[in-house]
Design a protein that fits this description.
The protein has a single domain (39-137), classed as Rieske [2Fe-2S] iron-sulphur domain (Rieske Iron-sulfur Protein, 3-layer Sandwich), CATH 2.102.10.10. It has one helix at 3-17; strands at 43-47, 59-62, 65-69, 75-79, 90-92, 97-99, 106-107, 113-115, 126-130, 133-137. It starts with a helix and ends with a strand. The strands form three sheets. The protein has a four-stranded antiparallel β-sheet, with no helix packed on it. Strands 1-10-9 form a three-stranded antiparallel β-sheet, with no helix packed on it. A three-stranded antiparallel β-sheet has the order 2-3-4, with no helix packed on it. It is globular. It is mostly beta strands. The structure holds FE2/S2 (inorganic) cluster.
């Protein structure tokens, strides 16, 4: 076997390894059935005077909910578990949206799906800011 043949075969093998686990099927992931239920009967208060939520673009995850402070100064709260396979989503301040780091699903600022493989929206929660107290409730 020549060096070129060896590299060709290794390259083909490596390409197979990097095929996304869910390619070609929206429900084909082995862990697709393990999505935690979105929190219900939510009513919590967070102090936004310090920490991640004190800065625009910051976010945190608590109690199964991701809370984000937008560049415009608003607060968003949606369920944190990706509806595809349950990974914890992230807030993307630049686009004021949410993204799953696992397989790349995207959601808008209300939790609606904007890109697969997820097909169901995130749960959205209400937010009310009073001083530095942010109430998050369903
Ligand atoms: S877990 Fe698959 S896209 Fe989020």
């Amino acid at each position: 076997m020549t060096r070129k043949e060896f590299l060709s075969q290794v390259g083909a093998g490596a390409a197979v390894l990097f095929v996304p686990a869910c390619l070609g099927s929206l429900s084909g992931c082995s862990n697709a059935g393990t999505v935690p239920a979105a929190p219900t009967n939510v009513d919590m208060t967070l102090d936004v005077s310090s920490g991640a939520l004190s800065v625009k673009g910051g976010y945190l995850v608590t109690g199964g909910i991701i809370v984000a402070h937008t560049a415009a100064g608003a607060f968003l709260a949606v369920s944190a578990a990706c509806t595809h396979a349950g990974s914890t989503i992230q807030y993307v301040s630049g686009s004021n949206s949410f993204r799953c780091p696992n397989h790349g699903a995207t959601f808008n600022n209300t939790g609606a799906v904007t890109g697969g493989p997820a097909s169901r929206s995130l749960a959205q929660y209400n937010t009310t800011l009073t001083g530095t107290s942010l109430r998050i409730f369903s």
